[in-house]
UniProtKB/TrEMBL annotation:
Span of the signal peptide: 1-20
Protein's UniProt name: Flagellar P-ring protein
Family of the protein in this entry: Belongs to the FlgI family.
Record's GO cellular component terms: bacterial-type flagellum basal body, distal rod, P ring; outer membrane-bounded periplasmic space
Source species of the chain: Pararhodobacter marinus
Keyword Nucleus set for record: no
PROSITE patterns named among the record's database cross-references: PROKAR_LIPOPROTEIN (PS51257)
Subunit structure: The basal body constitutes a major portion of the flagellar organelle and consists of four rings (L,P,S, and M) mounted on a central rod.
C-alpha cells in the first residue's frame, strides 16, 4: 500500500510537470555568467573552552602567532595553551558580476580537534581564488549549525557544531575581469544536454525575435548572435529571452535511493512484457544451552552444553506474476503495484527487470 501511494504521488507530479513549461533561465547557463570558488585559512576566537588542543593541532598555534605578530605583539618563545581558539577553513562563492564592496556569505569549518564553533568570531581572513589572488576578506560572528554537551561519562551532539556560516561575512575586494557587453555571440549551455530541448530553445528564441538569431550547435549548446538581435548589448538580449517558456525534453529515468527505499520514476518510463517471481529465505537460529551437573557426591563440575537449532525456510513470495508491456507511466505503476511487494523488494525487482533488458529507462541507484 505504501509503495502504491508513493508511485501514485510520483505519477501525479510527473504528469503535472510534463505539461508545464520551464523558463529558459532555469534550463541553461549563460556563457561567462558564473560564480568563482574562494577559500581561506583563518582563526575563530572567543570559544567557550571548545577550541583546538594546541598539542594535537600545532597549525593553530602557528596562525595565532602570525596574527599576534602582525598586530605588534612579540610572542617568540611563548607557550600557548588556550582552548578558546580554533583553526578553520573558510569557503565562499564569488557571484557573477560581484562588485567591490558588496558582501557575500561564507562557510566556516573546523580543521583541528575543536568540539564546537558556537559563540566564536572569525578574525580577518583573506579569501583566495584559483589563481592565488585575494578576492574577498571575511570576518564576523559564526552561526554554528549544531550544539554539543559533554559530561564526565557521556556526551551528546546534535547537528554539526564544528561548522557554521557568516551571512554577509565577506566583503569583495577584487572584481573578476569579465566584459559581457563586449561579446558578439553568447553560448547557452544546457544544464542537462538534450537534443530536443536544445531544438525547442532555438525555435523559441527565433520565434521571439522573428528571425534566425539562435542556432543549435549540439545537444548541450545553443549559440545566440547578439548583433542579429539588434539589442544594444548582450545584457539587453539575454534579458529578453531568459523568461521565454520552454517545454524541455527529458530522458526516461528511474532513480532509486537504497538507503531510504525511495523510488522515483519519470513520465517516459516503459517496461516490456515480462514475468516476475519474487521470494526469499528465512533463517532461524535458536540457542537453548543446557546445564549438565555431576551426580551427587561425585567428583566433577557443572558444565554448560550449547544446544543450537538452525532452520532455513523459504518464504512464499509472490509466485510468477506477469507484467504487461507498459505504454504509459500509469500502466507501469499499476503493473508494479499488482506485485504487492514493499519498497525494498520493489528495488530488487526493478534492478532485475533492468538486467533482463525489459526496463526502457536509465536506472540511477544511489
Amino acid at each position: 500500500m505504501r509503495i502504491a501511494l508513493w508511485l501514485g504521488l510520483f505519477l501525479a507530479l510527473a504528469c503535472h510537470t510534463a505539461s508545464a513549461q520551464i523558463r529558459l533561465k532555469d534550463l541553461v547557463e549563460f556563457d561567462g555568467v558564473r560564480g568563482n570558488d574562494l577559500i581561506g585559512y583563518g582563526l575563530v576566537v572567543g570559544l567557550d573552552g571548545t577550541g583546538d588542543g594546541l598539542r594535537n593541532a600545532p597549525f593553530t598555534e602557528d596562525i595565532m602567532t602570525n596574527i599576534l605578530e602582525r598586530l605588534g605583539v612579540n610572542v617568540t618563545g611563548e607557550q600557548f595553551r588556550p582552548r578558546n581558539v580554533a583553526a578553520v577553513l573558510v569557503t565562499a562563492t564569488l557571484p557573477a558580476f560581484a562588485r567591490t564592496g558588496s558582501r557575500i556569505d561564507v562557510t566556516v569549518s573546523a580543521i583541528g580537534d575543536a568540539n564546537s564553533l558556537f559563540g566564536g568570531t572569525l578574525v580577518m581572513t583573506p579569501l583566495n581564488g584559483a589563481d592565488g589572488q585575494i578576492y574577498a576578506v571575511a570576518q564576523g560572528a559564526v552561526i554554528a549549525g549544531g550544539v554539543a554537551a559533554r559530561g564526565d561519562a557521556a556526551q551528546v551532539v546534535e547537528g554539526v557544531p564544528t561548522s557554521g556560516t557568516i551571512p554577509g561575512g565577506a566583503r569583495v575586494e577584487r572584481e573578476v575581469d569579465f566584459q559581457l557587453a563586449s561579446l558578439s555571440r553568447v553560448r547557452l549551455a544546457l544544464r542537462q544536454a538534450d537534443f530536443t530541448t536544445a531544438l525547442h530553445i532555438e525555435r523559441a528564441i527565433n520565434a521571439h525575435f522573428g528571425q534566425a538569431v539562435a542556432a543549435m550547435q549540439d545537444a548541450g549548446t545553443v549559440v545566440l548572435d547578439i548583433a542579429a538581435t539588434r539589442a544594444p548589448t548582450a545584457a539587453h538580449a539575454l534579458s529578453r529571452i531568459e523568461n521565454l517558456p520552454i517545454a524541455p525534453g527529458t530522458r526516461a529515468r528511474v532513480v532509486i535511493d537504497q538507503r531510504s527505499g525511495t523510488i522515483v520514476m519519470g513520465e517516459d518510463v516503459r517496461i516490456s512484457r515480462v514475468a516476475v517471481a519474487q521470494g526469499g529465505l528465512t533463517l532461524r537460529v535458536d540457542e537453548t544451552p543446557q546445564a549438565i551437573q555431576p551426580n551427587p557426591f561425585s567428583p566433577g563440575e557443572t558444565v554448560v552444553v550449547p544446544r543450537t537449532n538452525a532452520q532455513i525456510a523459504p518464504e512464499p513470495g509472490i509466485g510468477l506474476a506477469e507484467l504487461q508491456g507498459g505504454t504509459s507511466l500509469a500502466q507501469v505503476v499499476a503493473g508494479l503495484n499488482a506485485l504487492g511487494v514493499g519498497p525494498r523488494d520493489m528495488i530488487d525487482i526493478l534492478n532485475t527487470i533492468n538486467a533482463a533488458g525489459a526496463l526502457h529507462a536509465d536506472l540511477v541507484v544511489h
